[in-house]
Amino acid sequence: MYEIVSRFIRAGDMLTNPQRGFSVIVSISPDKIVYRRGRSEISYKFSAITETYEAFKGKTVSTSDLRTFLPEVYNSQKSGHSCNAVFFCMLMVACGLTDGPIQGKGHAFYPYYIVLRDKPAESV
User: Fold this and answer.
1) In the chain, which ranges are continuous DSSP H helix?
2) In 3-state terms, the chain is what percent helix, strand and coil (to 5)?
3) 3-state DSSP assignment of residue 51
4) Is the overall model pTM greater than 0.90, yes or no?
């Protein structure tokens, strides 16, 4: 997953967050991507990104699904960080790994969601 993401994302890039504002890429390395959301810098391991993509490729996945799937990564109440769930969606869209943009309203009854491709597009 690092190989794919590093083709599209660089330190300093700003990804538009559907919750409002931006997430700024602080650094990217083979083991993790670090991004800034507000005043917080959040580390997100590529092992978790890869595991998540592999589990949901070819399917629709919501931020609620992610929080249930790996709560230690995607749920602030379980030692993870809830921003990672939205960031995963943003990252997948930015890398062309989705069929369309982020959808949903971002609340419990209508969470954000994406449709993950089962494989990268030919141009990826």
Assistant:
1) 2-8, 46-56, 63-69, 71-74, 83-94
2) 35, 25, 40
3) helix
4) yes
What gap in Å lies between CA 124 and CA 97, rounded to an integer? 8
Q: What is residue 107's DSSP assignment?
A: B
**CA separation for the pair 99, 120 (Å, rounded):** 10
DSSP 18: T
Count the helices and strands in the chain (H runs, E runs): 5, 6
Express each pLDDT in 26-80 by its tens digit: 999 999 999 998 898 999 999 999 999 999 999 999 999 999 999 999 988 877 7
DSSP element (H, E) containing 45: strand 40-45
Compute φ and ψ for 15, nearest 5 degrees: -100, 130
| pLDDT classification of 124: cutoffs 50, 70, 90 | very low
Which tokens go with 105? 């309203």
Distance CA 81, CA 94 (A): 20
